[in-house]
Amino acid sequence: MVSSRDRPYQEEPMRVAVIENMRNTGLGALAAALDEAGAEIEWFRVWQDGILPKDISGHDALVVLGGEQSALDDETHPYLPELVRLAHRFGDAGKAVLGICLGSQILARAYGADNHLGIAREFGWHGIGVTAEGRADPLLSALGGEFTIFEWHADTFSLPEGAVRLASSPVAENQAFRIGRAVYGTQFHFEANSAVVAQWKAEFPDTIARIAPGWLENHAELAARHGGAADAAGLAIARAWVSLIEREEVELLSQASA
C-alpha cells in the first residue's frame, strides 16, 4: 500500500475574499496580479446586502476595499463591526489580509487604533515616502525611497500597537503598515491604475469637482505626467502582496492499489 507520505500533493488555486464597501470600486492592478497567480476571487458586495464570509476557512486571503463611509459608521453600515472582527480573525490565523483606504482604516480599528475623521484630505497622484522599515519590507522593497500613487481620502488613523509603519506623507503619517506576517493596510489606492482613475472621473465628477477644484480639467495632463509611474508602482505592490498569500495543499488520492 502507498503510504501517505508518498502521495502527491496539489496546491489549490488561492481563494481570495474581496469586500466591496461601495459599488463599482474596482480592483485595477490587484486584479491583474491575482489573475497572474490564478486566484479565485469571491466578491462580497456588502454595500448591497451586508453579507460577509461566514468564517475564515473558505478563503486564503481577505481584501477590504475603499468606500465613501468612515470606518466608524456602524449606524449606517451595520456590517462594519463584524467586518472588523473578521479581518482580525484572518490576521490571527496567519492569513494574508489587505486593507486599502477605508480598508486600512478598518484594519486599524480591528487592531485597536484610533480613527481620525476628516483631518487628512488627499486627492490625486501624490508622492509617498517609504520608511526604513518599508524599504526592507516585501510589499514596498522594490520601490526605493519614494513613489507616486493615487490618493482619495479624508480620514486617517493612529498606528496600531505592534504595527510597523512602512510609508508616510506630510498629510497622513500612516500611509502603509504591516502587522505580523502579512496583514497590510495602505491608505493610498495602489490598485487605482490609470483605467480605474478614468472610471472614477467618469462616475464621480460632481464629488471630484467639489473636493478638488480644477482636477477634472487637468486630468489628462496629470495622467500623462504621473499615470505611468503610479501604474508601475501599483502593480509592483499588488504582485508583492499576492506573493504572500499561502495556499492550502490538498492530498491527491493515489491511483495505486494495495
From TrEMBL:
<dbReference type="Pfam" id="PF00117">
    <property type="entry name" value="GATase"/>
</dbReference>
<keyword id="KW-0315">Glutamine amidotransferase</keyword>
<dbReference type="InterPro" id="IPR029062">
    <property type="entry name" value="Class_I_gatase-like"/>
</dbReference>
<dbReference type="InterPro" id="IPR044992">
    <property type="entry name" value="ChyE-like"/>
</dbReference>
<protein>
    <submittedName>
        <fullName>Type 1 glutamine amidotransferase</fullName>
        <ecNumber>3.4.-.-</ecNumber>
    </submittedName>
</protein>
<dbReference type="GO" id="GO:0016787">
    <property type="term" value="F:hydrolase activity"/>
</dbReference>
<dbReference type="InterPro" id="IPR017926">
    <property type="entry name" value="GATASE"/>
</dbReference>
<feature type="domain" description="Glutamine amidotransferase">
    <location>
        <begin position="29"/>
        <end position="194"/>
    </location>
</feature>
<keyword id="KW-0378">Hydrolase</keyword>
